[in-house]
Amino acid sequence: xxxxxxxxxxxxxxxxxxxxxxxxxxxxxxxxxxxxxxxxxxxxxxxxxxxxxxxxxxxxxxxxxxxxxxxxxxxxxxxxxxxxxxxxxxxxxxxxxxxxxxxxxxxxxxxxxxxxxxxxxxxxxxxxxxxxxxxxxxxxxxxxxxxxxxxxxxxxxxxxxxxxxxxxxxxxxxxxxxxxxxxxxxxxxxxxxxxxxxxxxxxxxxxxxxxxxxxxxxxxxxxxxxxxxxxxxxxxxxxxxxxxxxxxxxxxxxxxxxxxxxxxxxxxxxxxxxxxxxxxxxxxxxxxxxxxxxxxxxxxxxxxxxxxxxxxxxxxxxxxxxxxxxxxxxxxxxxxxxxxxxxxxxxx
Length: 348
Hints:
The protein is α/β, with parallel strands linked by helices. The chain has one domain: Alpha-Beta Barrel (TIM Barrel), CATH 3.20.20.210. The chain is 51% helix and 12% strand.
C-alpha cells in the first residue's frame, strides 16, 4: 500500500482530511489491564523494552481496542543511555535512576562500541510490529531529544528544578557540548536503525525543553534537533519527523520554523487557535487534549475535544494528547475519545 493511503502519513504530508487521524502519547501502558499482565510477566521494565515479542504485543494492544491510525514503538527514551552502558534502573513508584554523569571525566564511562548490539532487540520489535500492522496503520519510531536525555543522565533521575544538568551546561560548556554531541550522533544512528526496520515516521520527545532560557533553548534544544533532522533527511527524505518541544511556550514558533521538522506536537498549554494561526500555516500540527480531561471525561472532555477539532481540523492535523495517557485513566474514556474523533465529520 502506498504511504499516501495511510491517513497519518497523509496528514504529515500536508493533506487536510475529513477526519483527522489520531494516536495518543503513551497509548500503550499501565492504564490497560492487558499491558499490566505482560509487564508482570517481563519481570522488569527494562526486560519488557528489550523483549521483542512482549514489546510488540504491548505496542499492538491499544490498536486492538481503539483502532488508532498509528502505533508508536513501545520503548523508553532512556534506552539510548542504556545502550551507552550508563547504569539504569526503574524503581517502582520512583521512576528511572541512573548513575549520574556530571563532569567531563564522567563521560569516559560512556561506551558506544556495543550500542547497537545492546539495543538490537528494539530494532527487532520494530520489525515485528511493522509486519503485524494493518496496511492503513503507520508505525512511529521515536527517541528522546538530546537535551531531555541529558537531563536524566546528568541529574540521575527525575527532578523539578534540573539543577545538576543546568549547572553542568552553564559552568562547563565544552564538557556539556561533548555529551550533547554524543547524544546527537547516537540518536541519529538509533533512529536510522528504527527506520531501516520499518518505522514510517519518527518523533523526537523533548519533554524538558521548557526549563531552559531562550539562548540555551536555541543551543541545546533547537540546534541538536536541527542536526538530527538534517542527518535523517539526507538518508530518508521521505520519512516525516515530528518534534515535541514540551512546555517551550513562545519558543515553539521559532522551533517549528527553524529546526526542519515536518510537524510539531503541541503540549497542553498551547492554545489551538493560536497554533492554527502561527504554526499550522508552516507545518502540520499534532495535539493537544489535556490528559487529565481524558482521565475525568464527561462534558469537559467532550467540549475541549470539539474545541481542538474545530480550531485545527481546517489544516493538516493529527489529534493527540498534550502529554501521555495517565496510569489512572479508564480504558472506557479512551474509547469514548476515540469515538468522538471518528464522529467529528458528523458534528462539524
